[in-house]
Structure formats: structure tokens, C-alpha cells
Design goal:
Layout lengths: L14 H24 L9 H24 L6 H13 L2 H13 L3 H34 L1
Length: 143
């Protein structure tokens, strides 16, 4: 019996997730690239742009996670699009690692270490503060 070649193949169950992560990632990476164009880091200078982008991205993920887990039930593709895609593309811990390497290789190991620690501490503080503030705002809104 010949196979029916006109039947449509079902898309992979995760195809939509992969697609929205890719779209969100492109948007987030474009925003990060734009930040670098607006506020470029001078050769050998302290990488303020990368630091600010990473801290800002961590703060936004703190707000986002509270909102989607405690205040709103979003469509199943919102979290992969925005959380993984947009914010994953916007934040850049790979550039952070390259920045540290450049500082160390440029003879500025102390600055590289300060940058390493400052980014980690500021990113953690940003996400914790954003979670706390968002929960407080939601509680105030419900009162």
C-alpha cells in the first residue's frame, strides 16, 4: 500500500516555544546592542554599559517573575518569550566574562576582580530588591 504523501506532519510540540525564545532573544540582543551604541565602553575603560545592562535585566526578571507567578496567569509562551528570550538576549554574562578577561590581560586585574564582584552583588541585589518592591506594590494595590 503506498504512503499518503499529502498528509501534514504535526509540528514538534516545542516548536512554538523555540520560536518565541528566538524572537525574544533577537529583540533583547538588539536592545543590548543599542545600549552599547548609545553608551560605548572606551577601549581599556571600565565596562559600565555591560554592568548596567546586566543589573537592569536582573531587576526586570525579578519584577516579571513575581507578576507572572503571583498576580497574573499569562499565556504559556509569555515566560519563554520574555523571560528566556528577551531578558536572556538582553543580559550578557558572556560579555561580562570577556570584559573581565580584557581587564586582567590589560594589566588591570584588580579592576577585573572589582567588576566581577560588583556585577554579581549588584545583580543579586537588583533581583532581590525588585522582587521585594513588586510584592509590596501588589500588596498595596490589593489593599
Amino acid at each position: 500500500m503506498p504512503r499518503n504523501t499529502t498528509t501534514k506532519k504535526k509540528p514538534h510540540p516545542q516548536a512554538a516555544v523555540v520560536a518565541v525564545v528566538a524572537l525574544g532573544g533577537a529583540a533583547g540582543a538588539s536592545a543590548r546592542y543599542g545600549a552599547g551604541l548609545l553608551w560605548p565602553t572606551a577601549t581599556g575603560g571600565f565596562p559600565w554599559t555591560t554592568l548596567v545592562v546586566n543589573v537592569l535585566g536582573c531587576a526586570v526578571i525579578g519584577v516579571f517573575m513575581v507578576v507572572i507567578s503571583e498576580a497574573w496567569t499569562p499565556h504559556r509562551l509569555v515566560r519563554p518569550f520574555f523571560g528566556t528570550g528577551v531578558l536572556g538576549g538582553f543580559t550578557t554574562f558572556s560579555t561580562y566574562a570577556v570584559d573581565i578577561e580584557r581587564l586582567v590581560d590589560g594589566g588591570r586585574a584588580r579592576t577585573g576582580f572589582v567588576y566581577l564582584a560588583l556585577t554579581l552583588l549588584a545583580a543579586l541585589a537588583a533581583v532581590c530588591a525588585a522582587v521585594w518592591l513588586t510584592r509590596r506594590a501588589l500588596t498595596w494595590r490589593q489593599a
